[in-house]
Amino acid sequence: ETYKLPHRLIEKKRRDRINECIAQLKDLLPEHLKLTTLGHLEKAVVLELTLKHLKALTALTEQQHQKIIALQNGERSMKSPVQADLDAFHSGFQTCAKEVLQYLSRFESWTPREQRCAQLLGHLHSISSQFLP
């Protein structure tokens, strides 16, 4: 008898956790999936719809990943290694220049209309153009 009471409480807590998780899954499901069933969604149906949705998302993610790889491989095969390196350098340079300008704007109160800002932009542009035609 002393064993049954704690066991019942533990079982109730476990069932409550399961039910709470199923309720959260139900809330996460897209509306169009919820509408495929009529009325109340049983726990088993919620789990089935969740699996269906996760499988669809996984397939979509894999397709997008494959497209990205194909595009990257296509771009690499069309460009010479030197050109690919120059593109990467130019992209990094532009990102760095943008960060410098944001810093000066935010913390040094530079405005694009100031002469020193225009001079810096011109200098960064001329340096950048040296690496790409």
TrEMBL record:
InterPro entries assigned: bHLH_dom, HES_HEY, HLH_DNA-bd_sf, Orange_dom
Domain Orange positions: 89-124
Lineage of the organism: Eukaryota, Metazoa, Chordata, Craniata, Vertebrata
Compartment list: Cytoplasm; Nucleus
BP term (GO), one: rhythmic process
Entry keyword annotation includes Transcription: yes
GO cellular component, one term: cytoplasm
Protein's UniProt name: BHE41 protein
Keyword Transcription regulation annotated: yes
Domain BHLH: residue ranges: 2-57
Gene Ontology terms, MF aspect: DNA binding; protein dimerization activity
UniProt keywords, alphabetically: Biological rhythms, DNA-binding, Isopeptide bond, Nucleus, Repressor, Transcription, Transcription regulation, Ubl conjugation
